[in-house]
């Protein structure tokens, strides 16, 4: 019998590539009778055995193939395949040990990987990262950045690991090149922006953020058979991308539309549209037409900046469909307008709101005016921030001076402080969700601090561990608000619903000791679904009702 030729190997590989795995195994086995120590044939036979489910034999053959690592490209291929087998079998620690045992030499200097080798290198570096060997992954990948320089995905993989290792300057260098067609990749701009933010390069961060917004103005969820229609969500573009996240997180902010995009993923196909992207209108022409839209550009203060209201409204109106919480409705629900809206309604308290701009030269007069209008204590908060950020309770002139110093040059609100401490010395905050004028109490919480936070915060979790009875009381309120808060609670909430122009929104409030409804906040940017950790959940019934109301509302108003 004559020795096998390259033609025999090529025929065996052709069988393998054509899916004739059993025939390929027979051909590889025949080749091994002449070349029993061939790292090439052992590795190929190992992969073929894995494909037909002979995992133990596949592992044995791949390990044998790695005893000869003189050919670095072959060693990379065989190690990548062995790691893939072990990772797929959930044997992470064994994969890690194998990588350390069979670690090949550095890729030959000057050798440019062909297409197959290129894919192997990317896969191997990724596998090393996944099993916790980031340093080895970097040692393998960094020398190849120059020869694989136009592979933007590979460069991003290296940059991410460098960033995680605290080597931000090197991560920046890895992406500081022209990737040709890869320059259109949205995630490239997002990562560049995040790296620029960490270098405190505000200009570069803003520029890369704008390029992300222009390159990915629309994010269309995967289609599944159970989805009833496309539901568009108009979101606000990220002005400064500050961290490494997936594109989804740059499209959706942390409020209820982003929650719905996850909870209702099987029921509706969500399409996020960055309403202020310059390329959004053109990108929409190549997308399926939504049957309904939900406007998430609802911060009334931001809508009033320059021509934002007109631009966002024009884009949303161009679809010719129902837009829930249309910008022209949202802009009617500023804090000041809400304060005026409820000023003379018996049984409802909305603290007086005054808008200012902090100006160092006018500070004495500013302090005097706030003292005359609000007195002490007063609440000072920024105009644009949400979720309690940029909010202080001010108890004296010195504290007011310090707050205004922090806000120098910025607009802010001064709000009359309403006493919210209950007879037991605790503070309480309730949250109601409103869907098409239907109110529903979805949260109740207690705290020792006037600014009652959600249960996801470490401080609130510690509070409930020390006060389990208050957790029980809070959950009873959510379970049966009328029994715990009084039979007229929903009458007051319906008054709120009839007064606010929005169709879906949230309200944080409390009932005072004398039965008045005290409003802390009303807006359409809240989390209306629970964000609580295990063990501190709200009773599920109210959330299930809320989701039912929302789904029914969507179905009634679709195109």
Question: What does this entry look like structurally?
Answer:
- The chain has 26 helices and 14 strands.
- α5 (72-88) packs across α7 (115-130), α8 packs across α9 (152-164) and α10 (168-175) packs antiparallel against α11.
- It has helices at residues 6-17, 21-32, 39-51, 55-65, 72-88, 92-101, 115-130, 134-141, 152-164, 168-175, 186-198, 202-215, 247-251, 256-263, 280-284, 300-303, 308-317, 327-330, 335-341, 363-374, 397-406, 458-466, 468-479, 481-485, 489-499, 540-557; strands spanning 218-220, 230-235, 269-274, 292-295, 323-324, 348-349, 353-357, 378-382, 391-394, 411-416, 427-435, 438-447, 504-511, 517-523.
- It is elongated and about 95 Å long.
- The chain has 559 residues and is α/β, with parallel strands linked by helices.
- The strands form 3 sheets. The protein has a 5-stranded mixed sheet with strand order 1-3-2-4-5.
- Helices cover 48% and strands 14% of the residues.
Shape: elongated
Low-confidence stretches: none
Helix-strand makeup class: alpha/beta
Radius of gyration: 30 Å
Please give the alpha-carbon distance between the first and last residues.
75 Å
Q: Look at the structure and give the mean pLDDT.
A: 91
Q: What share of the residues does DSSP label as strand, in percent? A: 5-15%
């Amino acid at each position: 019998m004559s020795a096998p030729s390259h033609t025999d190997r090529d025929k065996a590989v052709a069988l393998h590539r054509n899916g004739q795995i059993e025939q390929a195994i027979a051909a590889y086995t025949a080749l091994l009778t002449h070349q029993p120590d061939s790292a090439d044939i052992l590795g190929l036979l190992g992969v073929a055995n894995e494909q037909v489910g002979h995992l133990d034999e596949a592992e044995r053959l791949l390990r044998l193939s790695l005893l000869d690592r003189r050919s670095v490209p072959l060693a990379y291929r065989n190690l990548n395949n062995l790691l893939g087998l072990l990772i797929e079998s959930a044997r992470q620690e064994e994969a890690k040990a194998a990588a350390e045992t069979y670690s090949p030499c550095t890729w030959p200097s000057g050798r440019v990987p062909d297409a197959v080798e290129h894919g192997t290198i990317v896969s191997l570096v990724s596998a090393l990262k996944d099993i916790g060997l980031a340093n080895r992954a970097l040692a393998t990948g960094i020398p190849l950045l120059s020869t694989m320089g136009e592979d933007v995905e590979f460069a991003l993989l290296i940059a991410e690991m460098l960033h995680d290792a605290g080597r931000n300057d090197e991560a920046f260098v890895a992406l500081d090149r022209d990737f040709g067609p890869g320059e259109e990749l949205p995630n490239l701009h997002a990562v560049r922006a995040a790296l620029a933010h960490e270098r405190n390069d505000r200009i570069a961060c803003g520029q890369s953020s704008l390029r992300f917004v222009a390159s990915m103005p629309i994010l269309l969820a995967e289609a599944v058979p159970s989805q009833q229609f496309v539901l568009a969500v108009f979101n606000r573009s990220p002005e400064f991308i500050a961290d490494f996240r997936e594109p989804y997180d740059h499209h959706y902010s942390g409020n209820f539309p982003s929650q719905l995009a996850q909870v209702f993923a099987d029921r509706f196909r969500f399409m996020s549209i960055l309403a202020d992207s310059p390329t959004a209108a053109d990108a929409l022409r190549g997308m399926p037409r939504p049957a309904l839209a939900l406007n998430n550009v609802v911060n009334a203060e931001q809508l009033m900046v320059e021509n934002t209201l007109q631009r966002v409204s024009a884009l949303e109106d161009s679809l010719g469909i129902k837009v829930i919480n249309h910008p022209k409705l949202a802009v009617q629900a500023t804090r000041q307008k809400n304060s005026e809206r409820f000023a003379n309604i018996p049984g409802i308290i909305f603290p007086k709101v005054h808008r200012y701009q902090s100006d160092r030269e006018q500070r004495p007069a500013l302090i005097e005016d706030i003292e005359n209008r609000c007195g002490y204590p007063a609440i000072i908060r920024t105009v644009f921030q949400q979720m309690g950020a940029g909010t202080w309770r001010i108890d004296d002139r010195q504290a007011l001076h310090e707050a205004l110093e922090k806000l120098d040059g910025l607009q802010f609100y001064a709000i009359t402080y309403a006493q919210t401490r209950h007879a037991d010395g605790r503070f309480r905050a309730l949250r109601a969700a409103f869907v098409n004028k239907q109110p529903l109490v979805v949260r109740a919480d207690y705290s020792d601090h006037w600014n009652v936070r959600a249960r996801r915060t470490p401080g609130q979790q510690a509070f409930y561990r020390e006060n389990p009875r208050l957790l029980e009381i809070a959950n009873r309120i959510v379970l049966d608000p009328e029994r715990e808060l009084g039979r007229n609670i929903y009458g007051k909430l319906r008054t709120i619903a009839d007064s606010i122009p929005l169709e879906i929104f949230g309200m944080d409030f409390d009932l005072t000791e004398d039965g008045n409804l005290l409003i802390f906040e009303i807006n359409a940017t809240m989390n209306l679904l629970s964000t609580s950790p295990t063990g501190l959940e709200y009773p599920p019934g109210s959330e299930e009702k809320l989701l039912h109301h929302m789904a029914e509302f969507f179905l009634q108003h679709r195109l």
